[in-house]
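Ticket #4471: structure export looks truncated?
Reporter: QA, pipeline team
Priority: medium

Steps to reproduce: submit the single chain below to the structure queue and open the exported record.
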Amino acid sequence: MLIWMSRKLHCIYIPGLGDNRVRGQQAAVNTWRLWGVSAEVVRMCWADGEPWEAKQVRLLRRIDELLAEGSPVALVGASAGASAVINAYAARKDKLVGCVLIAGKVNRPAAIGSYYYRHAPAFIDSVRQCQTSLRQFDSGHRRRILSRYARTDPVVAQADSVIEGAYNQCVAVSGHAYMIGSQIVFGARTFTRFLKDMR
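Actual output as written to the record:
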C-alpha cells in the first residue's frame, strides 16, 4: 500500500466525438504534469465504425497495463468521453482512484439526436451502457466521481451530467467547447487535486 501511495497518479484523458483532432487537447493534457500527475490521451475514435464493445476492451486493456505496473490510475472524460469513463470505472471500480467528467453525456440516451445514430453508433451504445453502469456504484464509488458542467451548454444539458451522490459542480461558463477547453487547461489544478485526495 505504501508503494502504491508513493507512485505518481496517472490520468487517462478520453476526449469526445471530435477525437480525430486532439492536438490542442493533447497540449493541454501535457500541462497536467505541473499539478503532479502523469497523463495520456486515449482516443475512442468514435466515428470509425468499430463497435463500442471493442473500444471498451481496448480502454480496459490500457488501464490494466498501468495497474499491472503499479500505477494508481484515474480517468478524465469530456463530453462523449465521459460515457466511456463511467463504463470503465464500473468495470474497474475497486481498482481505479476515481474519475472526472467534463460536460459529460452520461444520462438520457433517448435525448441524443438521430445524426449520432448514423455517424457515431458506438457513442450511443456507450451512453446506453452508462445507465447500467451507474446502478453499480454505491455511495463510496459515487463520491469518487467529480462531474463538472457549464451553466449553459447547448450540446450537453446539465441533466445529462448530474450524477446522484457524486460531486456535481456547475461552472459559471457558457458553451460546450469553451467548457471543455477551459477545464482541461484552467480547471486541471483543482480536479487533479480532487483525484489525488481520493488515493
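Status: closed, not a bug. The export was complete when the record was re-opened. Leaving a note from the reviewer for reference: The first strand starts at residue 9 and ends at 14.
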